[in-house]
Fold each of these.
Amino acid sequence: MVLKTKPVLVTPVLPILSPENLLREAVLPCPPCSTLASLCQGFSKSDEALDGPLSLSEDSRSGSSLSNWSLFDDDTSSDDIMSEGSAIDNDEGKIIFSTSEHDCILFNTELQNMAKDNVLPGQEPLCIIKEIPAKGLAMVALQKLYPGDIIMSELPLFVMPLAVFDGDEGEDWLDRATNKLSCQKRELLHSLTDCRNPADPTTLGRFYTNCMFWGDDITVCPVMARANHSCRPNAEFLPRVDLGRNELRATYVIEAGDEVTINYMAMAEEGSDVREVRQEYLRRLYGFQCTCKACTLQDLELEADDEVREELKELQARGSHNWTQPEVLGFLAGASKIQGKLSFIMDTMEECWAVASDQTLKLDYCLKGLSLALTVYGQGSPKATEWKERMVELQLWADCYLPQHG
């Protein structure tokens, strides 16, 4: 699903923990991963998969929490989703799958390959790409995930210099880069959405729709790009240039079977705005009407959500460098209510920490910033290390000053 478009490329950002959890020093461990069997074995004209949901083999179901999983929604068969004649024999006697079914197999095979290559954090994928009726392909969690858990870690297909991205030679550059890809990687790229021209997609359109920042440059990670949008997301992607890969991390508790979603919008702009503004932006830039949980609130719930967002926009208009301590706490509480992106919250806390003149307040902001950095980027990351160094300096001050002055 779409992540970015060329005119509005913004720094990737994510959702948030509640304020009472901002001081967590460790990320909760991820439970053992379930087994995901191969999704592309044993398909033939006589297979029952053509008469019902495309599911895992019987052998793989024994003892696995995936016993009820299929590539399609449990109540919807592949025949219900596919158009008539979408799974037929060609002249060579080979099965021709529908586009959605083929893409599910393609992306789930790549998830398996990522696990074998140790790009994924566990032995098996933590999510699956499956068809959801009336929505299309979606990323669904295979087990319960906690804030900070790495859902996937994907290597970029290639890195486009920002000057090329902003210039007029992007198409030629992209053609050369695409020709160097393996057949499977090229097919992954060509299976993505072109939101500006869905009826006749181009490679350039697919890239501009799904690209992500990579330091000062641009890249695309096609499996990660399958995460759909929500104005109340539960995950966030971020570039780990220091590790040579992009990470998709859970930023809220995600139950097994929940869709993994991200926010396409910048929190400093439309991402924290009211429903009408968000939906207009998504229609104009991505070509769809958002029907996420936040966009389908009604009556008093909608009024309460809009009120929180309006208060946040007022605070942002004043500038975080002008906030009082109660306003900082109000920002954290409001951002938590709308599930604001964690990276945005962390960056805001950094601004508050930088301008705080009171050392005790500075220490408090540093604790919150460090907790966020550990959840968003993880132990040993440059960002977490930067916050830890600040904490060491402030702790030295606290150890020397507070005992003497109370």
Amino acid sequence: MSLRSLPETEEKTAAARAAEPRYTLTMVASTGIVVPAWATRLITEFRAADERAKALVIGLKLEQLNWQPRPGVWSVGQCLEHLCIGNELYLPAISASLAGKPLATVQEITPGRLSRWFISNYIDPSPRTKRASAPKKIVPAARVKPSVLDRFLSANQAVRELVQSASTYDVNRIRFRNPFIPVIRFTVGTGLEILSGHERRHLLQAERVKGLSGFPG
């Protein structure tokens, strides 16, 4: 069984991308609002994640989507579902934190010491990143449905819209309630950086699974 809905997904996402506002380093032409550099960068990163996800999943059979190298190691589909759940929990928390806050723009995101340590040790895909079990809230299902790509692309569209909205606030001062560790309140800027780094980490993980010699043909 192949993922027959995926060509339609490509068509839909192409139409969705065409309808999205176009960002530059300086301003949004339709509004004249200056767009900070960090927002342009993150929007570009999330679009790149979309392309990586499509390259991973389009054309896979259901068996391939759910193939695990060994018990306890996530499949391509599980990596994507994990990202979907994480985004769907983070986005409402970050969005709610912006309500009622005064408008203010910063040109760069500047995480604090604890945030930099957390991103370096648990988020960024690098040899320094520590391995840790995912919180129960974002552990993927044992079997993932073909619709996981649609879900991922939809979540990333929502992330880009949130980045656009957050770009008019001081993301280095506003903090949000962490849905996984309530006692830790990251800034909105740090939260958005976490989402992008988290996607890079697990997309790389999925790419490595797909590249293994035992991956079913």
Amino acid sequence: MTELLSDNEDTVNLNDIIESGLAGAGTTLNKLVVPGRDFVAAGIREGDLVVNTGVIPNCSRVLSVEGDSITVANNMSLFAGATYTILKGSTEPATLYIGTVGAGATLKVRTAGGDDIVLDNLVQGTTIPLQVVRVYNTGTANVSNIVALF
């Protein structure tokens, strides 16, 4: 789940990959273009998540889909040749398993109720008894191998 840390998107329950590939000519900071690809036929729709896998973490929700292009909500630093993955959208919350922690580990999350909190003194190999919809990139440090449990 480390590649899905995000300061602007709820990404905890996003595990279903719709497709992956390379951005093509015409791609801009917030528009993914793959000439000859029909994103509508592939089932991509508003609310799905595009991840720029070359610049982690960097993801954004799909605002619109039109043939070979997808417009996203946030600047993702997309460019022709960038690798991307598109995940099926979901808003279901999860509890988190904390796999590995280092010295001074902190975990910033958004709860299902909309509260943003920072957890300190994390213990490796435990679960966090909260319903979480987002794990922030900013405010999370020295934590890895996070697993969302449903």
Amino acid sequence: MSDTARILLVEDEANLRELVKARLEQNGYQVVTAVDGYEALTKARDESPDLMILDLMIPKMDGYTVCRMLRFSRSEPLPIIMFTARSSPDDVRRGLDTGADAYVVKPFEPATLLGKIDELLSARRAEKEKKERAEQQAREQANVQAKPKPA
């Protein structure tokens, strides 16, 4: 992951999409956008985002389906924040059960969204560093075992 995290923002409402994109860019993030479920899946594959902000009520394929498909198709987990006006406890539970890592209700406080982004990206960085350390230790162990012993 580079120093600047890349966020895929999936939102069909143009004004809100541009507002959130501008706020994220002001906070140092690279932002790629999608307006429907199919475009979200394509950009998740092609753009290698570090995190996705996903509206539930989007054209062509709803956010639940997009989230579920990404959970089953990616080798490396993509943190997903459900970003929606649907606020009932059943909606929140369904979003999290589908595989979302966080749930932010619109209208939203920018600090809440930015806090969730930071929390999820920090956890992803820590997990990636842990994995890299384990791989390095495995390589070092393999090198030690592969060296011939002096006769």
